[in-house]
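Re: the request from the purification team.
They wanted to know what the chain is likely to look like in 3D before they choose a buffer screen. I agreed to run a prediction and write the result into the notebook, where they can find it.
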Amino acid sequence: MKRMTDQIALPVAHIVMMVAFLTAIFLADANLSLAASQDKKTPEVMSRPSAVDHAEARIKELQGVLNLTDVQKEKWNTLTQVMRENAKEMDAMHEDRADKSQTMNAVDSMKFHSKITETRLSQLQKIIPPFEALYATMSDAQKKSTDTIFHKGMSRKKMKEKSVLSNNKS
């Protein structure tokens, strides 16, 4: 019975970790500081890469590391479509906030952050099924790489190095 529980719990734990990692890499730039004073910042400092640009960079990096097969491309494309939709939604929210930032008070700001949190949860719920479907098609080596990325994280430099190494082996 314990072994059966472990067989179920371990994949579920992996999925939870993968979702946490996806959140970190795709939405990390979406955080805004509650304590930041906007009138002290110059427009150059306030500008940040769009969530769409951030997502596109992550898609390229992950695609290189995962070495997807032709069979997996359809699942990957479905996943990346959701990632792109999520990024566009986040950019729209931040543009809306930027338009209203001069008139927002502390309560409005808290409500905005609550809305961001709800949106992130919704986006995670949308991204789990396509990610789970892709993960199910992965070879053991791909799963191991994916699990390593999600458990330990991977800097862009390490991801690029790993991609170069795996491409040289091919």
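For the purification team: Residues 2-30+37-163 form one domain.
Please add any questions underneath this entry.
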